[in-house]
TrEMBL record:
GO terms for molecular function: ATP binding; ATP hydrolysis activity. Pfam families: ABC_tran, oligo_HPY. CDD domains: ABC_NikE_OppD_transporters. This is Peptide ABC transporter substrate-binding protein. It comes from Dethiosulfatarculus sandiegensis. It is found in: Cell inner membrane. It comes from the Bacteria. GO terms for biological process: peptide transport. It is a peripheral membrane protein.
Length: 324
């Protein structure tokens, strides 16, 4: 069995709250997971489940009125939650990189692609600009952009959406990080390009021995590209385990609902199933299980909040109804 010292990342009881005039928004409420080197972890759930905030919390990118109020974020044995900003700056982009959802907004429209990649390299210690430009060309070639040397002189608007996302991946991979956090990296792309981009990311991550956290609302994607899955709902984890276990034998009603809503997962000519209702406001969560108002199995026992418990080796779920 792996020891904690072999974990690249350990997130333990993470709480990230936003303090607003209307009250406290518990965007991340007691999330815990671990990630080994070379593995891909999927964080999946509906919009507002706390997936992106979890990723931003790891990198210390929570702006006021939000803040990480408690918990441990151990990366290579260092608790990122306790590091000062000047130390986090040295880690961001070099040891932990992020691929953002929309490359149209994450790339600066007034600078060339080559300038933006070389500036990322320069920011993390490489001052030889000849080496930086050679590395930038290598990166564009690596992510499958034709004529990479010529394209370095182009601006973001001269690239298609898929190509811009490839540039975002190139920037994220520039300093050979140990961990990449990909926040909905394919949402703005059509289905064909989406598969190409995610296949490329998986290939690059695996070839460089890095790890990745893939944040998405699409459980079909994590089932295809990830090694492990964490299902989030209303700021907390409701199920986690190996991909094969969670996809083939989901035990939490919410995970079952997500999988049942995938087109093609049911008999032909049958209506797609859907989870009734909407996610509750994080300002006014129900007592007990947050999924209770939408759960067909819920009863009075669910008025007590369930804890994540092992239902099978390595497979955990937070539900009183598991096995009942």
């Amino acid at each position: 069995m792996n020891t904690n010292s072999e974990k690249l990342l350990r997130v333990k009881d993470l709480h990230t709250h936003f303090f607003t005039r209307k009250g406290v928004v518990k965007a991340v409420d007691g999330v815990s997971f671990e990630l080994e080197p070379g593995r891909i972890l999927g964080l999946v759930g509906e919009s507002g489940a706390g997936k992106s905030i979890t990723g931003f919390s790891i990198l210390g990118l929570i702006d006021p009125p939000g803040r990480v109020v408690s918990g441990e974020i151990s990366f290579k044995g260092r608790d990122l939650a306790k590091l000062p900003e000047e130390e986090l700056v040295k880690i961001r982009g070099k040891q932990i990189s992020m691929v953002f959802q929309d490359p149209q907004t994450s790339l600066d429209p007034v600078f060339t692609i080559g300038y933006q990649i070389t500036e990322a390299l320069k920011a993390h210690g490489e001052k030889d600009m000849d080496k930086n430009w050679a590395r930038a060309e290598e990166l564009l070639r690596m992510v499958g952009i034709p004529s990479p040397k010529e394209r370095l002189e182009d601006y973001p608007h001269q690239f298609s959406g898929g190509m811009r996302q490839r540039v975002g991946i190139a920037i994220a991979m520039a300093s050979n990080p140990s961990l990449i956090i990909a926040d909905e990296p394919s949402t703005a792309l059509d289905v064909t390009i989406q598969a190409q981009v995610l296949t490329l990311m998986r290939k690059l991550v695996k070839s460089q021995g890095a790890s990745m956290i893939l944040i998405t609302h699409d459980i079909a994607l994590v089932g295809q590209f990830c090694d492990e899955i964490c299902v989030m709902y209303a700021g907390c984890l409701v199920e986690k385990g190996l991909k094969e276990t969670v996809i083939r034998n989901p035990v939490h009603p919410y995970t079952q609902g997500l999988i049942a809503s995938i087109p093609g997962s049911q008999e032909r000519r049958r209506r797609l199933k859907q989870i009734p209702g909407i996610m509750p406001s994080l300002l006014d969560l129900p007592s007990g299980c947050p999924f209770l108002p939408r759960c067909e199995l819920g009863d009075e026992t669910c008025r007590i909040r369930p804890e994540l418990e092992e239902t099978a080796p390595g497979h955990l779920a937070a539900c009183h109804k598991v096995g009942s």
